[in-house]
Design a protein that fits this description.
Blueprint lengths: L7 E7 L4 H13 L14 E4 L5 E7 L8 H6 L7 H16 L9 H11 L8 H6 L11 H10 L3
Helix pairs in contact: 3-4
Length: 156
């Protein structure tokens, strides 16, 4: 926050399994340097102009309301026409877990999205590539709240 020339700063973190705990941690840390830091996280993400003129934002993945992570959010961008395959990927992941797949329960959303991506053309795309190549649809209505927050925060 004290960097020379800083005008905008965004903090994006995963909620994981404790959204309220994550927000409390952010709020406690930020309140020390931003005296009028808000007590509540808006559903549309926080954008707070500081008294030093910096536009500061907070987004807790996936949507400021529920448990999850980046991969939970990216599932919002799965095209509607792939819904049947997405449902099947989730079933396969659950079955693999029952058969001994040793990923942690907290990483279920990661396993789901990477399984679905493995079945795309071309298989095994990294997340950013899947967005750039529109395997994942950044225009999907479920993702727009985040994109609007990002554009508003950075005046894009």
């Amino acid at each position: 926050m004290k960097a020379s020339g800083l005008t905008h700063l965004g903090l994006i973190v995963d909620a994981d399994d404790n959204l309220s705990g994550r927000w409390e941690s952010i709020k406690n840390a930020c309140s020390k340097i931003i005296p009028d830091f808000p007590q509540e996280l808006p559903k549309t993400g926080l954008i707070h102009p500081t008294n030093t003129g910096i536009k500061f934002g907070v987004w807790i993945m996936p949507d400021n309301e529920m448990r999850g992570m980046l991969e939970t959010f990216l599932a919002y961008m799965i095209p509607d026409e792939s819904d049947t395959l997405w449902q099947y990927a989730q079933e396969v992941v659950k079955s693999a877990k029952k058969k001994g797949a040793n990923f942690k329960d907290v990483h279920l959303d990661k396993a789901n999205i990477y399984t679905w991506l493995a079945w795309q053309n071309s298989p095994g795309r990294q997340l950013h590539q899947a967005i750039k190549e529109q395997i994942l649809n950044p225009q999907h209505p479920k993702a727009q709240t985040f994109f609007n927050w990002f554009k508003d925060l950075y005046d894009l």
